[in-house]
Amino acid sequence: MRIASLFPPLAGALLAGACASPPPPRPAPEPIRAAPPPPRPRDPDAGPQPMPVDEFKQLVRALDREPGGDEAKLTMIRTAAAGNWFLAGEVALLIDHLTYRPNKLAALPILAGRITDRDEAWKIVEKFTYREDKAQAEAELQAR
């Protein structure tokens, strides 16, 4: 006597399973990454140091995600500038994240006194299109 005749539903399931394709292979697990090295402590005798690169990138990402417009972005910049220093190129990038001319100019008094490489201030001035804005930016940067 055949098994199929005694247990037809079971035999059908067994035969179907025997003919089925094997399950797809599992993806390889991601390799374990080593933790990044701890940040180097800032040397207080070296003078003002610019904001660490990773922190600056976080600030830029936060500005990119900010839905509140220029006023909210100016508040974020003001908060970041209260305890950090910036490179001139970073200040230029922050100014680029503001949309309107008056707000770009309003960012200068906040950031001008927090620039570590003042000899590179031309990077900031070139972000302004109009001659009167460039003159105002130069005046603000020289006053600090």
Please characterize this protein's 3D structure:
There is one protein chain. The protein is mostly helical and 144 residues long. It has a domain at 49-143. It contains 8 helices and no strands. α4 (69-83) packs parallel to α6 (101-111) and α6 packs parallel to α8 (131-143). The mean pLDDT is 85.
User: Strand fraction band?
Assistant: under 5%
Helical residues, percent: 55-70%
Rounded radius of gyration (Å):
30 Å
- Give me the secondary-structure category: mainly alpha
By DSSP (H or I, 4+ residues per run), the number of helices equals: 8
What overall geometry do the principal axes of the alpha carbons give? elongated
Query: What's the overall average pLDDT, rounded?
Result: 85
Give the N-to-C terminal Cα separation: 101 Å
Secondary structure tally: strands: 0
State the order of secondary-structure elements, H for helix, E for strand. Answer: HHHHHHHH
* Biggest sheet overview: none
Low-confidence stretches: none
